[in-house]
Amino acid sequence: MPIFTHPDLAPITRHARAMYSSRLLIAAVHHLHAFEQLAAGPLAPSDLQARLGLRERPAMVLFPALCAMEMWAYDASGKLQLTALGQHLTQKARPTLTEYLGLEKNDAGVIEMAEWLLNDGPQLSGVSGTAYVKEGTGPSPMDEPTTARALTLALAGRAECLAPIVANKLPKHNGHLLDVAGGTGYFSYEWLLVNPQATATVFDRPAVLAVAAELLEKFCQSGRPGVAGVRERVKFQPGDMLTDPLPSTDILLAASLFHDWPTYTCQQLARRFAAALRPEGELWIHDAFLNDELDGPLAVTDYSAQLFWVTKGRAYSRREYRGWLREAGLIPSMESFATQMDYGLIWAKNSSKG
Ligand SMILES: C[S@@+](CC[C@H](N)C(=O)[O-])C[C@H]1O[C@@H](n2cnc3c(N)ncnc32)[C@H](O)[C@@H]1O
Predict the structure, then answer these.
(1) Domain final residue, candidates 88, 119, 150
(2) Which residue out of 128, 130, 134, 244 has the highest number of ligand 1 atoms within 8 Å of its CB and is therefore the one to mutate?
(3) How far is the CA of 181 from the centre of ligand 1 (A)?
(4) Are 83 and 73 in contact (CB under 8 A)?
(5) What are the counts of helices (DSSP H) followed by strands (DSSP E) for the chain?
(6) Over the stretch 86-134, which tens digit does the pLDDT of each residue have?
(7) Total domain count, the chain
(8) Model ipTM over 0.90
(9) What are the protein's GO molecular function terms (predicted)?
(10) 42: cis peptide before it, omega within 30°?
């Protein structure tokens, strides 16, 4: 059976996530009054954040998004200012579309977005925990079999689409791949197919790995050349990546992982992952990246708002990732590869030679 051939599916996810731009824009104008704050002149991002009463995460979701929408821009001194377009969303401008946008200000999604921005999440935290996140002793949907299955299978199509591309960009190796928070495991299965001597560990929550094991069976029955030999080279390791020992590895893959977590947890994870690398080891990150200037691209600022809505994280820039990787003692490459669906790969190598 041949591997799927398909166009880049990015237009589908872009259209699906576009509603987050609308919510952010209308909430910023009508609930946070953020455009009025800038009407008097440019402000340093930290000053604007303080005036709006926002924590770091919502500010880093909202400000890049409004820049990507070309409503705001950075001036030469790094302050945020209204663009010629954005001026028309202030009360004093003529013409102004402020009231026209106000027709949607009571939309449930807009109101909820405003609440999330102001609280850095929902006012009442959910009793069953946050999607795709297991932290501490609190409940997690990833530990409840029904929700773990639904959330894992929801990502299966994306992983099936991206994993063959990622597998071909990762290093060819006869050693070991650790697929942390590996979900379906597809990134490991595809990489093992192109590395016939290698082994892999898919590390995740037990209820997620039960689904991954079923998907491995299906993968091995697909009839593609070489798939029969994949099953025996995969190990499933249940655990908590934040606290449990991680197996040592030549390549560590963190796919769509950091973006579920706040900055301080990303720094902690980078240190844990660096410590799991063998002397010549490499840490690879597959994710969607903000521009280093934190002003787009629009597809990623929409995605960042979606992540803000459902997880504890947001999208980060390559510069932010490379900072954490350096702090963790790794040497980040300045290379970056695009994959598909607005994702890309960056990587860093272990500085220790053993
Ligand atoms: C967004 S999914 C990414 C899955 C996969 N890497 C992919 O790209 O399809 C995040 C994964 O992190 C896992 N996860 C969350 N918290 C975890 C923890 N503390 N320890 C291990 N895995 C965790 C979830 O169960 C989930 O499978």
Answers:
(1) 119
(2) 134
(3) 4
(4) yes
(5) 13, 12
(6) 999 999 999 999 999 999 999 999 999 999 999 998 776 655 778 899 9
(7) 2
(8) yes
(9) O-methyltransferase activity
(10) no
Asked whether residue 285 falls in the same domain as residue 214, the answer is yes
Which residue, 165, 9, 29, is CA-closest to 86?
29
User: How far does residue 238's CA lie from ligand 1's centre (Å)?
Assistant: 11
Cis amide leading into 297 (omega within 30): yes
Of 71, 68, 9, 2, the residue nearest 34 (C-alpha): 71
- Confirm or reject: Cβ of 259 under 6 Å from ligand 1: no
In ligand 1, the atom with minimum distance to the C-alpha of 244 is 20
**Residue 183 CA, ligand 1 centroid: distance in Å:** 6
* 200 found inside a domain: yes
Could you read off the pLDDT of 171-203 as tens digits, one per residue?
A: 999 999 999 999 999 999 999 999 999 999 999
In a domain, 129, yes or no: no
- Residue at 2 is within a domain: no
Q: Is 283 in the pocket of ligand 1 (CB under 6 A)?
A: no
Which CATH number characterizes residue 281's domain? 3.40.50.150
Can you tell me which atom of ligand 1 is nearest the CA of 142?
Answer: 25
Q: Which domain holds residue 56?
A: 10-119
Q: Could you write out the DSSP letters of every residue in 148-193?
A: HHHHHHHTHHHHHHHHHHHHHHSPP-SSEEEEET-TT-HHHHHHHH
CB 162 within 8 A of CB 345: no
Pocket test for ligand 1, best of 140, 205, 287 (most atoms within 8 A of CB): 205
Q: Establish if 160 belongs to a structural domain.
A: yes
Check whether residue 160 and residue 293 sit in a common domain: yes
Q: Ligand 1 centroid to 151 CA: how many Å? A: 10
Best substitution site from 179, 186, 236, 260 to test ligand 1's pocket, by max atoms within 8 Å of Cβ? 260
- Note whether 291 and 201 are same-domain residues: yes
